[in-house]
Amino acid sequence: MQNKQALIDSLTGVNSSKNNYYSELKQTVSALENKNTKLSMINNVTKGFHVAMPMEEMLEMVLQSLDQLYPVARISLSLLYDDSLQLTQVYPPDTEVFPVGTTFTKGASVYWEAVHARTPVHMLVADMPSKYAEKRAFEALDLIFTVSLPLYSRGTTLGVLNIAGKEAVESETLDLPFLQQLADQLAVHIENSRLYTQVLKGKQEWEASFSAVQDMLIITDQEGFVTRTNPAAADMLLQSVPDKKPVHITQLFSHVRVETRLAQRLDERLTIQERVCDVSSAPVPHAENGVSGIVFSIKDRTEQLQLEAQLIQSGKMAAMGEMAAGVAHELNSPLTAVIGNSQLLLRDTQTESPEHQLLTDIKNCGDRCRNIVRNLLTFARQDEYTMTSTSLNHAVQQALSLLYYQIERSQIHIETDFAPSLPDFHGNSQEIEQIIINLLMNARDALEESTVSEKRLTLRTFEKNDELHVTVTDNAGGIPPDRIESIFFPFFTTKEVSKGTGLGLSVSLGIAKEHGGTLRVVQSSAEGSTFQLTLPAEREEHHD
Amino acid sequence: MYKYMTPEIIFGNGALEKSGESCLRLGAKRVLIVSDPGLQESGWTNKIEQCCEDIDLPYSRFYGAGINPRDVEVEQGVDAYKQAGCDAVLGLGGGSALDVAKGISILATNGGRIADYEGVDLIAKPLPPLVMVTTTAGSGSEVSQFSIIIDSKRRKKMTIVSKSLIPDIAIIDPVLLSTKSSSLTASTGMDVLSHAIESFVSLAATPLTDVQALHAIKLVSYYLRPSVAAKSNVYAKEQMAMASLQAGLAFSNAILGAVHAISHAIGGRLSLAHGDINSILLPHVMNFNRIAAPERFKQIAEQMGITTAHRTADECALLAVELVTKLGADVRAPQRLADIGVEREDFSVIADMAMEDACMVTNPRDITKQDVLDILHEAY
């Protein structure tokens, strides 16, 4: 009877009304608003992600957004590594129940089910097969429903995103297609993040190598402006072009017209800041056959060349020393006879007799010869060079004594001006003598070629600013300006092959530096040139 | 507690001309006119198309409704509606065309198949703007919340009940009745009487429906005969149109009874005029229901012109049954089921279907399958 009345009520329509377009419209609008909310959510989530974002933050963001729509209490991310599905992130963290790192077994996991199904898997925890590993964990966390969303990007499975809540929610309410869209966005970001990490690692490795290389590396843009340098190059660049404005590569290779070669590969030896450098360049390839810039690799060869020069020179010196020692020994016996015999004769000769003067000359000349031989032996002795307190004047005089006659014979007038009581320097006399000999021989060679009427060579020593100086000045017409930079380079010579090796000045410079000093051209004009060796004076008083 | 529902109603000679602008007022951009071949023949569809053209309302035609509304016709109609991009439905015709128009409207916005909506309140979404012009003064479909559609497979008339089926605007133009044959006038007229009587004795009758029902009974009693007698009797046609409208409002709100339940069952199996079946069944069902509401039947008798003073209610009720039988005979409506081709071997199936019909719920007297079979045998 009640049933009948209920039927009559529904027929007469007390409990129903004609459907109304306004309510229909409201429903449509609210459905659209819901859709909009979801779209803007996806948009926000997508905007909020950035490649360097930690995974946990991403999940937190997704959870917070989802929370506005559904009663979602837990979100987890499991990633696939070589066919092994592993729990990677959980938010909020619940390590006690289901620790991060747990791997899931195929066939006994709802996550795997989602991977295989390739579609969202919605399940009530109560309905979940008990063989599923997740069931125990979800039950322990009081979760009622769960949705597992496969993560796909570019056709590969990345893993599974799982969301779960503590209230029963039907799959229609959850809007699974929307959740899958969200998961798809997440998948793209996870993929991007992975790629980014790979690229970042590659970049870091490259940058570390770039910095570690001792050669100078400079990268320029297409126009030749420096965009990047490694530390070695930065130091050099800073010296060469101190201001921070965009530096053009030609400012570095000023005397080489590099700009005409920017597009080509460069491979040659250039002088940069008084250093000998091997410069090579290569274009940086860019997409579509373009060139985005040029890499310059600059290898400083100066030290290596000096070492080579010193090796050659010392080889020669060794040979010469042996030869000189041999010659000296050969000469010693005849000289002993000459000096001894002349002394014997002198003893028996009256002072007034004309022979006496002749014999005295013979003896003096013999003595001088013996001195020369002795000097030669001393200079050529191949002892280990020891650094001791040494008198500069003595070293200069020793050197001069070796060459004095040669120079005089070339019609060159030698003037000396040695400062008295110079302090000693710490060094090796033989090495400093070698520098002076080199300078004297260069001056003599220059003067020999010169047409000046009164050939003059001046040798001075003096002290200034706690430094000891030796200058060798000639009046042979000076060094051409374009050669001044090159004269200290190894193997640079203006002399005939028979006369010079091109090693003299570079080796001398090396020795000067070893002594903490310098060797420079301090003056060069049409009249002549002055070379100056500067050595630091020994500060401490020393005792013999 | 009760509810009374009615569409906007435009009643009067020449009301047909308001059909186009009624659609326009409801926001129609292209209207699907639903009608049947008979009305096309008599020129009424041309008239309604002209109405639309006059106000530049684009329209499409679906004139495929048959004598009984079938699911297939509804599907064809909804295809036409969608292909043409219509957004409103204008029904023109008797009960069949109007029910097909309702069916098309259901599917136009709700989708699916028409059988999905059989029953009460199963329509979820509002229908497109719906304007109905009745041409028969019988079915009451233009004001009712019912749509009766035949399920071709089950050979069954499905009763769809929903407030959403009440058209937005009902147009009743008595002039349209002037082309009807006398037999159709008689058949639909008897249908109106069955609507009026059944809704008056219905368990869901209310004072609001009673007024409509009783007045409809009176109008039919007085004007059906002259209306059948002469097509030219405009006044009688107008009164019959009002009787149909009032009976329609009454049964739409008070629902019907066993006559319609059994009639739907027969109509599902045989393509017969709904009014003819009702006309045959009405006196027999009244006789069966008599004891359930004697006072009600007494009032019916009063409306039909019986002097009730000094008569018992049951005497009056019996007189009413007699008067209904006589009216049917006078207008030459069919009198026996055998005359219209119903077979006795179908009775059991018909009775089973009738018992399931929604209209059976409001029948004033509790009824069994045997009761239905008895009625069928009496009416055979």
Description:
The complex is a heterodimer of chains A (544) and B (380). Chain A is an alpha+beta fold and 544 residues long. Chain A is built from 14 helices and 18 strands. Chain A starts with a helix and ends in an 8-residue tail after the last strand. The longest helix of chain B is centred in the middle third of the chain and has 23 residues, at 207-229. In chain B, the strands form two sheets. In chain B, strands 1-9-6-4-2-3 form a six-stranded parallel beta sheet, sandwiched between helices. In chain B, strands 5-8-7 form a three-stranded mixed beta sheet. The N and C termini of chain B lie far apart (40 Å). The mean pLDDT of chain B is 91. The radius of gyration of chain B is 19 Å and the shape is globular. The A-B interface holds A 4, 7-8, 10-14, 16-21, 24 and B 1-3, 5, 120-121, 123-127, 145, 161-164, 166, 203-204, 253-255, 358, 361-362.
Poorly predicted spans of chain A: none
- Tell me the quaternary state: heterodimer
Tell me roughly what share of residues is in helical segments of chain A. 40-55%
End-to-end separation of chain B in angstroms reads 40 Å
For the largest sheet of chain B, list the strands in their spatial order: 1-9-6-4-2-3
**Number of DSSP E strands of chain B:** 9
- Taken as a percent bin, the fraction of beta residues of chain B is 5-15%
Shape of chain A: rod-shaped
What share of residues of chain B is helical?
40-55%
Largest sheet geometry of chain A? 6 strands, antiparallel
Count of alpha and pi helical runs of chain A: 14
Helix/sheet category of chain B: alpha/beta
Could you give the count of β-strands of chain A? 18
How are helices and strands ordered from N to C of chain B? EHEHHEHEHEEEEEHHHHHHHHH
Q: How can the largest sheet of chain B be summarized? A: 6 strands, parallel
The helix/strand class of chain A is alpha+beta
Total number of helices of chain B: 14
Average predicted confidence as pLDDT of chain A:
81
Low-confidence stretches of chain B: none
Largest interface: A-B, 15 and 25 residues
How many angstroms separate the termini of chain A? 140 Å
